[in-house]
Amino acid sequence: MAKKAINPTKSLKIPQIIIISAKICALISTKLVAKFAARIFTTPIKHKVPKREFEMDHKSIQQTIYIPAIDKSVVTYEYGNSNRKILLVHGWSGRGTQLFKIAEELLQNGYSTISFDAPAHGKSKGKTTIMSEFIAAILEIEKQFGPFEIAIGHSLGGMSVLNAIKDGLKVNKAVIIGSGDIVQDILDEFIFKLGLKKGIGDNLRDLFEEKYQVKMDDFSAYRAAQKIKIPVLVIHDNDDPEVPIKAGIHIHQNLEQGSLYLTDGLGHRKILGNHNVIKKTLEFIKIN
């Protein structure tokens, strides 16, 4: 699941050295290659904060908070001082300031935002993490900074927001942007990018389920969506090379009060700063 930023119209590629290493492991044993794949899958890349995010980074109040459920700490960002709070959740290899453009517009409209660097992301410590740790962080942040009126999540952050709502996060509405959907599809796509046989995806799932004592499909976004009663806006780009459009459509189909907004040519990350996307988000938030 480790990713590098690229042109949004092209799909991410895993470095050749990792692909070669994976194939060597596969020649040795299925168990070894599953362990190798699991390590890569759970290791995000920490990118430097780009200049466009400096203002939010410098003006936000930052602190490190402890998440008892996972015995890890995360860095949080308080941006603005309104009592009308919105939670922002970044995606894989992202940062708490990645949704800065959305945060700035929210500030101008009378809201403040709380975001965070998930474990092993940004300024938070650690090397590896999984979605359940994103969810645990969200629920603890709600205890310490909430209540929140709205939750907005991008990519894995979108999946995490839906699962957190299913697990008790109290918000009036949610917005998910470029969210993944079925966990097995994500595992299979990752295995495909490693150049391995599809069956290794099942081995990877089994490894995670045994290690964390969970059913991976329980974290699929559509399953969470089936249990959510609040209005949710699903935003997805038709040309997203990382998360196929079918994911957003399927999530929307399983929501009781879902709205779907599709874009073209924005890919997976450029969509976060698009004027029309932000306008649609604000309109959705303000509708009573």
Would you kindly provide a written description of the structure presented here, covering whatever features stand out?
The chain is of the alpha/beta class. It has two domains: 1-41 and 183-219, no CATH class; 48-181 and 220-286, Rossmann fold (3-Layer(aba) Sandwich). 41% of the residues lie in helices and 17% in strands. Strands 1-2-4-3-5-6-7-8 form an eight-stranded mixed beta sheet, with helices on both faces. Strand 3 (85-89), helix 4 and strand 4 (112-117) form a beta-alpha-beta unit.
Number of helices: 11
Mean pLDDT: 92
Radius of gyration: 18 Å
The side-by-side strand order for the widest beta sheet comes to 1-2-4-3-5-6-7-8
Number of extended strands: 8
Taken together, the total number of domains comes to: 2
Level-2 CATH architecture of the largest domain: 3-Layer(aba) Sandwich
Largest sheet: 8 strands, mixed
Q: What string, H for helix and E for strand, traces the elements in order?
A: HHHEEEHEHEHEHHHEHEH
**Percent helix range:** 40-55%
CATH topology of the largest domain: Rossmann fold
Detail the poorly predicted runs: 1-11
* Name of the CATH superfamily of the largest domain: Alpha/Beta hydrolase fold, catalytic domain
CATH level 1 name of the largest domain:
Alpha Beta
Helix and strand content put the structural class at: alpha/beta
